[in-house]
């Protein structure tokens, strides 16, 4: 492992619909306060709930920071747990955004695969965070909901060849406050980084053995 700082970008969404305060952005701001330790260079962004903004912002984040990992956080009205999304989907975007628009052809990337899975093993992350005794319930899902969350996730997965994650949080107070969500996010990011390190070590060993 070298001594260079690893860059991690975490995004939350701005207000939309009845969510005048978006729990995802509150959680990301709490994560920023907590930090990820001296070895991680953390950048956070609030993403407007607009498809066209996502189409320009997400590629910019990857180009500007060359991050090891980008984690997008969104709020889900129906969630009662902190939910790790396994994949993003390309088609079915018919719900209009804050600008009253939805994508042409209702898809993210014309000609892209229908579904892209994250390279991160979300089941392992879920088990590790659940075992850490945070008092926040974590679960895994494979349907991010075909709105801006899913759209953002698919776009990021497509650009990064799967090196992205998406976390859905419940609305504030249902049942967790912002601080609890921030702690859960920190545990999730730290466990993802550990998993990526382990994968890298295994890959290095295999590479050395093959020579």
Nutshell version of this structure?
Helix content is 39%, strand content 20%.
Characterise the protein shown here.
The protein is an alpha/beta fold. It has one domain (about 5-210): Peptidase C15, pyroglutamyl peptidase I-like (Aminopeptidase, 3-Layer(aba) Sandwich), CATH 3.40.630.20. The protein contains 5 helices and 8 strands. It has helices spanning about 25-35, 50-65, 120-130, 150-160, 180-210, and strands at about 5-15, 40-45, 70-75, 80-85, 85-90, 115, 140, 165-170. It has a 6-stranded mixed beta sheet, sandwiched between helices. A two-stranded antiparallel ribbon has the order 5-6. β1 (about 5-15), α1 (about 25-35) and β2 (about 40-45) form a beta-alpha-beta unit. The mean pLDDT is about 95. It comes from Neogobius melanostomus. This is Pyroglutamyl-peptidase I. It is an enzyme of class 3 (hydrolase).
């Amino acid at each position: 492992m070298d001594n260079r700082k690893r860059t991690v970008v975490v995004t939350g969404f701005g207000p939309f619909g009845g969510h005048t305060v978006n729990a995802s952005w509150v959680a990301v701001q709490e994560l920023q306060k907590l930090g990820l330790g001296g070895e991680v260079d953390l950048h956070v962004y609030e993403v407007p709930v607009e498809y066209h903004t996502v189409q320009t912002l997400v590629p910019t984040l990857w180009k500007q920071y060359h991050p090891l990992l980008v984690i997008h956080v969104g709020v889900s009205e129906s969630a009662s747990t902190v939910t790790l999304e396994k994949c993003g989907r390309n088609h079915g975007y018919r719900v209009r955004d804050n600008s009253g628009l939805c994508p042409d052809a209702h898809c993210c990337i014309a000609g892209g695969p229908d579904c892209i899975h994250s390279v991160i093993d979300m089941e392992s992350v879920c088990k590790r965070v659940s075992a850490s005794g945070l008092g926040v319930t974590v679960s895994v899902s494979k349907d991010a909901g075909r709105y801006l969350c899913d759209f953002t996730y698919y776009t990021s997965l497509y650009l990064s060849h799967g090196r992205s994650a998406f976390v859905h949080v419940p609305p504030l107070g249902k049942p967790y406050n912002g601080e609890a969500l921030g702690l859960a996010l920190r545990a999730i990011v730290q466990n993802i980084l550990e998993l990526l390190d382990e994968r890298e070590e295994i890959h290095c060993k295999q590479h050395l053995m093959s020579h």
